[in-house]
Amino acid sequence: MSKGRVEKVQGNEQIEPIKSKQRTLFGFFSKIPTPKKESPSSSIPLQKSSASPTAGGTGDAKRKPLQSQENELPVRIPEESLQNTFSSHPSSDPFSSPLSSNVQRSSPKRPLDSYEDGNTPKNVNGKLLRTSEHMDTAVHSPPRDNDSDVSLDSPTKNKSQNIELDSSLQSDPQFFPSSHLTLSSSSTTHEDPEKKSNPQSGGRRSRKPVSYQESDEEDAVLADVKGSRANRRRKIVLDDDDADFEEYVEPEQENEASSDESIPAKEEIPEDDLMDEENEEMDDDDHNPPLAAPKPVNRSKPSKSMYENYRLGSNLASADLPSPRSASPSKATASGVMNREEKRRLRMEAFKKDNLERYEWLLDVRDADKNRPGDPNFDPRTLYIPPSAWSSFKPFEKQFWEIKKNLMDTVVFFQKGKFYELYENDAAIGHQIFSLKLTDRVNMKMVGIPEASFDYWASQFVAKGYRIARVDQLETALGKEMKDRQRTQKEEKVVQRGLTQVLTSGTLVDEAMLTSDLSTYCMAIKELIRFDSDEPSFGICFIDTSTGGFQLCEFTDDIHRTKLDTLLTQTRPRELILEKSEVSQKSMKVMKYCVSSAAIWNFIKPYTEFWDKERVIREIISANYFENGLKEAPKVLSRVLETKELASSAFGALVWYLRQLKMDKDMCSMGNFMEYDTSQHSTSLLMNGQTLKNLEIFSNSFDGGDKGTLFSLLCRCVTPFGKRLFHTWLCHPLRSPVAINARLDVIELIADNPSIRDTIWGFMHKLPDLERLISRVHAGRSKASDFVRVLEGFQKISLAFQQLQSEFQDIAKGTLLAQLIENAPDMQEELQSWTRAFNWRKASEEGVFVPEPGFEAEYDQSQQYQTELKSELYELLEQYKKQLRCSSLNFKHVGKEVYQIEVPSDVKVPVNWCKMSGTKKANRYYNDDLRKKIRKLLEAEEVHLSIMSRMQDKFYTRFDGNYEKWLALIKCTASIDCFFSLSQAAAALGEPYCRPEIVEGDKGELVFDELRHPCINATAAATFVPNDVTLGGNSANMVVLTGPNMAGKSTLLRQVCVAVIMAQLGCWVPAKYARLTPMDSIHTRLGANDDIMSARSTFMVELSETKKIIEETGPKSLVILDELGRGTSTHDGHAIAYAVLHHLVSKLGCLGFFSTHYQSLCIDFIKYKQVRLMQMAAAVDEEHRRVTFLYKLEDGICPKSYGMNVANMAGLPEAVIDAAEQKAEDMEATTKSFHKATDDIALVSDFFQLMRINEGKEPSTMANLPLMLDCIAGDN
Fold this sequence. Notes:
Layout: E1 5-9, E2 12-16, E3 41-47, E4 75-76, H1 79-85, E5 103-104, E6 137-138, E7 150-151, E8 160-166, H2 167-170, E9 183-184, H3 193-197, H4 271-278, E10 281-282, E11 291-292, E12 314-315, H5 340-358, H6 387-392, H7 395-404, E13 411-416, E14 419-423, H8 424-434, E15 439-441, E16 444-450, H9 454-463, E17 468-473, H10 477-486, E18 497-503, E19 521-529, E20 536-544, E21 549-556, H11 562-571, E22 575-579, H12 585-594, E23 600-604, H13 613-623, H14 635-643, H15 645-660, H16 664-668, E24 673-675, E25 686-687, H17 689-694, H18 710-714, H19 720-731, H20 737-752, H21 754-764, H22 770-779, H23 784-807, H24 816-823, H25 828-835, H26 840-846, H27 857-884, E26 890-894, E27 897-904, E28 914-918, E29 922-926, H28 928-960, H29 963-987, E30 997-998, E31 1005-1011, H30 1014-1020, E32 1027-1032, E33 1038-1042, H31 1049-1065, E34 1073-1076, E35 1081-1085, H32 1098-1112, E36 1117-1122, H33 1130-1148, E37 1151-1155, H34 1159-1164, E38 1171-1181, E39 1186-1195, H35 1203-1210, H36 1214-1236, H37 1241-1254, H38 1265-1272
Parallel strand pairs: 4-8, 7-9, 7-12, 13-17, 19-22, 21-24, 22-23, 25-35, 30-34, 33-37, 33-38, 35-36, 36-37
Antiparallel strand pairs: 1-2, 3-8, 5-6, 10-11, 13-14, 14-16, 15-16, 17-18, 19-20, 20-21, 26-27, 27-29, 28-29, 31-32, 31-34, 38-39
Helix pairs in contact: 11-12, 19-29, 20-21, 20-29, 21-23, 21-29, 22-23, 22-29, 23-26, 27-28
């Protein structure tokens, strides 16, 4: 047969590999070159060993370094002995024994062919070549990127002895394999030999980095395993079809569990420590020094790239054999072992060189259309890969880049066995942001995380704003092998994988990743500005993917985008989908102002991705989201597609985006569609975005959180879906007195009947988020344990509704609570049928569906077949107990190598038994009969898993058939939870609190006695000063409020608005008495802010907000204006404030407060009947410039703003305050003289307005005539 050829190149031997496909016997010897010459006996230089035995004749507890001995003759190994030792060869069966790569050197005390009992060796099949009780070990490590050749160095002098082999062994392909290895000469080192050779010593050793080699054609990799470092054992698991790696743990003690566990998510073990772990040894059955854990050999033809990357001078774990005599010394090892920095430098240089050659197209990045960055049409989501690169890819690389080339803006998690891995730029992100261990996979950078920690790391990446893609294995290695046997054509050796999920912050669905119970929205916005108008039109569609609820709307907005602002403030979307180059600058500014800075912005192409209405209809039909196309589509969606073109287009963009995330089918097929109205003029109180911000309804003004907001005060819901519904209620308080009183009746009922409150709390306080969970069931992605939680939750709801209906039917009759319970769907019978379907306890605890006997015939048959196979295994075990005359034999599972026969170490076993693992007390074996039966069992289990998967789908499909009923039951429960929340919030307000009296009327009216701010009351109830407030009815509609700085004017304005919202929400209010007619809208203008992004000054912002108020205010609106006109000069500010106040009082007739520091403005309206002049009281000490704020509302005009007193409180210098006070006196004298010399401008203006009406020039204003006459009548 052909042999390897040895050539000298640059002083080193270069070996041409033998072209042979036969298996090698030892992992280590698979790299020993074939001798150049054939002779009757060939010699391999073997270093002499001197293992010192202990007194008892046993080996030392620690492995000793090799010591050179002089004048030692070669040991000749007879051909017959070697052939007897190596006679058994591993089977091609995937369960064949992993052969050890441990090579032990002989001692001169005993010939190599003698054994401990004088008979055939216990460890056969080439598992262990034992020459002495006290021999050293050569351990084979997997190839590493930093090894160009393998140096087998000895810490002692370079003296060797030869083992002469018979000529027949020289050409044996089992002994001299096809793969090649350059052995460098050993050299003298100055390190402590004890530390060098003993992994248990205190010294540290350089170790190779943890490697996750991923090529489907390459060898398997070494991975960390769980357990004590001293008790760990490492094993390489190989797979012909894929390089997915597994890791096993085998403790030395019997009471320690064997398991395969994932490595920590982050590398926490120092590099040197991990090297020590890799070289830890197991005690064998002869009490020898610990031997390195056996490693299976690769059953497939080794890839050349695994060997060609060995570098000069690298150590092969703890192998301490010298090179052949003909090998020249390695340059790197001539003076010592290469240090870690040198190895890393060489590895990185080689890696960069390989990358430049093979991935040079990554240096010149282009998108799929070959556009480069900077081009207006560049698409950062895609990557162009030239055809020449595809031809050079290995199967795994091809599989990876086929997915990654369309996800260049996404971090892709690629599943490899028990790990998820990130490559190239994604790996760099993981390393730089999260300090994940970065390694080199031939030509690709890589980091890895355990499969079990995917949810944690995915949520971490998402929280940082990254988009995450999940690529899963769609079959197991065993499943692939079973399928391949049924195929005729040859398949590539790569496990099938596919993109299963893409995660973004706006589209999270897994309960573990969601950080809030409130809705998280992904929103698509379509804008259209017509040529004949400056007012834009918007079509909007948004979805909460955790519940599958779509909401659509279309509206025409003003030039300030007021409705868009309101919608964005109400929903706070986490992700936006916009049409590229089609959104106006004004709209972009509004969006940037309203959404979070962490929001994700997606700009997609018009028409091809942002579909128009016609394309949307075609895609819905072709994708078969609904049965019979659009005929079975939800009514809301059908109506939108027929009448609203912009909303239809926005829906199309959202569907396209969900399709990229692999979520479109799951979301659309639920059929959960609603129309959204930002204002709901006919049914709810209107609060625009400006009002929601000013009143701090959902977010506060200091950090944007919900602390101190009205929502945090009132929302005391128990269930997550109740909280989401309460958020909607607070966005749209009621306007109908009937609807408000109906809610108030339920709140009073719960407050007066503690038993009802306790019943509601009892069944709701442990309910899971059913609304989100049933959406996961619909998508078929729910865990078995979560499905049980869903059924148990609905059982609680059903039983609680029955209890409420039977026990409280009389007292709750006619209330909204009784109507909800009566209208809720009865699911008791359906739930009862589920108790007979499968074992709930096993599903909850073990996460598997086990059908009740007789429920699923296919499952029962598969289960019976597995039981029979297991019985055969135990029958075989009983046979072996009799054969070996040992009753203590049993089965032991080690990782995936299950049903190993565990035999006490003092019991002899047949020669054809292959040792798999062991401890001090016992060894574990496989044989051919056992492997065959295990193989049948594992294949049966694989089929059983497929049956269980299909059965799970059947369960979920059956449950989803009643999706609408389950959802209706959830909504009824959520409404009851909101009632419970309002009753709890009312009780927490503190005394006094009352039920508001809601009255109907054509004019607005507000009456509050001893009103307090509810949010401030919660933290400072003892010191807060209540106030009486009356607007409308028999009192003035408008209050002009003056007072010192910091006297509480803004707080009073806000508490009036908040009290109105609470009353119309159906909640009790923090007042002794309250009566009001429901308001149509609330408008506020508070604070002073500029808008740098829009190039608008503070005064411009004030006037823009005031313009919106004037346009939208009506007779039943509540208006709050705080210090209008302060953003400009005194005279201009006074003029603007006067004109706006006059317009509100004489033209609009709304209710409201107008706070100001212009005392002269009060004088202008002193004769107006519909204006009431009030002030916030304060006690002033003029002598010491001190002011005490009383926070009490009373009639009158505050004579001063007492700015000098506040300046004194702030610590301004006395000289500055004196000068300011003198200047203020001069200005006040001038102003008073001016007012005495002028006529009443307001009265003159109203008179001329009446004259124009009388002449018929403005007949449209006749409707305002009674109001105007009432205003100018004064006190007469």
